[in-house]
Specification:
Oligomer: single chain
CATH architecture: 3-Layer(aba) Sandwich
Shape: globular
CATH class: Alpha Beta
Radius of gyration: 18 Å
Strand order of the largest sheet: 3-2-1-4-5-6-7
CATH topology: Rossmann fold
CATH superfamily: NAD(P)-binding Rossmann-like Domain
Strand content: 5-15%
Helix content: 40-55%
Length: 264
């Protein structure tokens, strides 16, 4: 074979991508990255108003984008989302499982209902959507890219004062879900990889940011900074493109080096 240029390896022109939790934050950042690389992007989250604003933002940047409102904690919604995304785009080449939730409480008093809510969205939803997209779009074509958003919270324990037992457990599950699925679906030409973000300012992390302060949180990272609006873009496109076609079953922390200190 004649090796392609790096520009061609990262080019996603003609590809389609479904990004859950894509109306804001890390999901919208990755949607921008995939669209900037040439992919047509389908966003999903629960609220239509948020999705419309996000799609307008992507379109203003010259990205082909659309949206489907769905709750990825509900099996019926997930199946609808998969069917509708495939119907509208013809196929799904890239799936970014990003929709997630967190809940804080001491482990000894953690409500079972909160545990179930976090687990249903953060790992059960990943499984059902991956299964539906692979079965009806990727496996028949012997091609696909699945990117699971985990967290450095899934790589180790929490520092004192953090009380997110279900979130940490779900993100640890997402890492091994990634590895198990990669091993099983490699024969179908599907790569499955995970991104483990560290602390990024977002709606989910707003309470922690307010309580501890940006400078304090940044001081825990060797790079002495928090993640920003472009720090996930490069890795997302690497996993999604032919530049990463020989990478599967892997997870990479994007955290300014925090996991080095923690030993993750």
């Amino acid at each position: 074979m004649t090796p392609r240029t790096i520009q061609k390896l990262f080019d996603l022109t003609g590809k389609t991508a479904l990004v859950t939790g894509g109306s804001r934050g890390l999901g919208l950042q990755m949607a921008h990255a995939l669209g900037e690389a040439g992919a047509k992007v389908m966003l999903s989250s629960r609220k239509a108003e948020d999705l419309m604003q996000a799609v307008d933002e992507l379109k203003a940047a010259g990205i082909a984008a659309d949206w489907i409102a769905a709750d990825c904690a509900q099996e019926a919604d997930i199946r609808m989302l998969a069917d509708e995304a495939i119907k509208r785009m013809g196929q799904v080449d890239i799936l970014v499982n990003n929709a997630g939730a967190a809940w804080g409480a001491p482990a000894e008093d953690y409500p079972v209902e909160a545990w179930d809510k976090v687990m249903n969205l953060n790992i059960r939803g990943y499984f059902i959507l991956s299964q539906q997209i692979a079965k009806h779009s990727m496996i028949p074509r012997k091609s696909g890219r699945i990117i699971n958003i985990a967290s450095i919270a899934g790589l180790g324990g929490n520092p004192s004062g953090m009380q997110t037992i279900a979130y940490n457990t779900s993100k640890g599950a997402a890492v091994n879900f990634t590895r198990a699925l990669a091993g099983e679906w490699g024969v179908h030409g599907i790569t499955v990889n995970a991104i483990c973000p560290g602390f990024f300012p977002s709606k989910m992390t707003m309470g922690t940011l307010k309580a501890l302060g940006e400078e304090t949180l940044a001081s825990h990272a060797p790079l002495k900074r928090l993640g920003d609006d472009e720090d996930l873009k490069g890795l997302c496109v690497l996993y999604a493109s032919d530049a990463g076609k020989h990478i599967t079953g892997q997870y990479l922390a994007v955290d300014g080096g925090v996991s080095i200190i923690k030993g993750g």
